[in-house]
Amino acid sequence: MSDHLSGTRALADPAIDLTDLYAFPGPSRPGRLVLVMNVFPNARPGALFSDAAGYRFRVRPASVPTGDSGSLLDVGTDEFALSCTFSIPVGPDDDGEVTQRGTCVLPDGESVSLLVNDERGGEGHGVRCYAGLRLDPFFMDVAKEVETRARRRLAFVPKGTNSLEGADVLTVVAELDVARVFGAASGSVFAVAAETVTVGPYPVRLERLGRPEVKNILLSDNGVDAANKVVDLRDLYNEEDPFRLGPSYVDAYRARLNANLVFFDGLDGKADWTTQPDGTHPLTELLLADFLVVDVAKPYAEDSYFEIERALLEGREHETCGGRSLNDDVIDTLYTLIVNAGHGPRVSDGVDGTVPASREFPYLAPPNPDPPEPVSVPTAAAS
Q1: Tell me: the pLDDT tens digits for 138-165?
Q2: pTM of this prediction?
Q3: Strand 168-177 relative to strand 32-39: parallel, antiparallel, unpaired?
Q4: Is 239 in contact with 233 (CB distance < 8 Å)?
Q5: 306-323 burial by CB neighbour count: b if 16+ within 10 A, else e?
């Protein structure tokens, strides 16, 4: 489920469990970048952020190679971080409500204060921030996706069931003026990742997130990875720096991706990707560079996920903004890419959306006051 429940640590503490990351140009305000980080899957009414964790967006300027450079994407070392922390909850007040305040520290050290669940959010220094309970914008037929991997054939149906229908999450939204916050020289293409970390002088990474479904689908155990049949790679992967994988386990991630990508390619009964003689899949290194890539110089688009990466693979210039919008059907995009490389019909899980997100701040739909009880659906086809 995108990044919901992606490892034992996330299962143990839902308040630090990153479920989704979104990055897109401001739909109605040119020159703006919108960043959205969702946590706490299946949040109930009254859910609040952890006061022991930091919620951090990490953004780096990137450039798209041209010609025969051989590089898929050039990400700089300069970094702009927006870090949000939250107070110990206070209350209840006269209305029986518990309140919590948040502080978002900007790249230049300035800060924006806000009241959790206040629709107006907080604003200052070229940034507007919101934090609170909202409807989970992610949509997917989880059961049929798991069945697809378990039975080793496409099990999706024309009219699927959104496994997350009516569920809520906690969200942190930051809308920023790119030129003011990052500087005019930062360019327009950015690599974006999210993290939850411990609060304190020596923060420890708890979870990290770039693209959707890297951990729960692409790194899942499907019984085809001969190099590792024991360790759940997701917790190890969560500890990695999004922009620089450490040397200890990178070969394990590569082996899992190479094996799984061949597995997915064969789900329609034919091979559309050509691996190298050593078994390396053409998508492996691109997917290990696990962050969203967005171009704020392009207009906002709701179906632009993986556009910049696809353009690089195809040797063309990207046409839309890339990144990931709240209404983007990323499961169809992902499955079409890994199953038929875009050379056949679109592979759909039969779920095309949920309550649409808005084009106005804070973008996510209001929370469901009576969310359904969580449905236990396995995210791995084999263990």
Answers
A1: 999 999 999 999 999 999 999 999 999 9
A2: 0.95
A3: antiparallel
A4: no
A5: bbbbbbbeeeeebebbbb
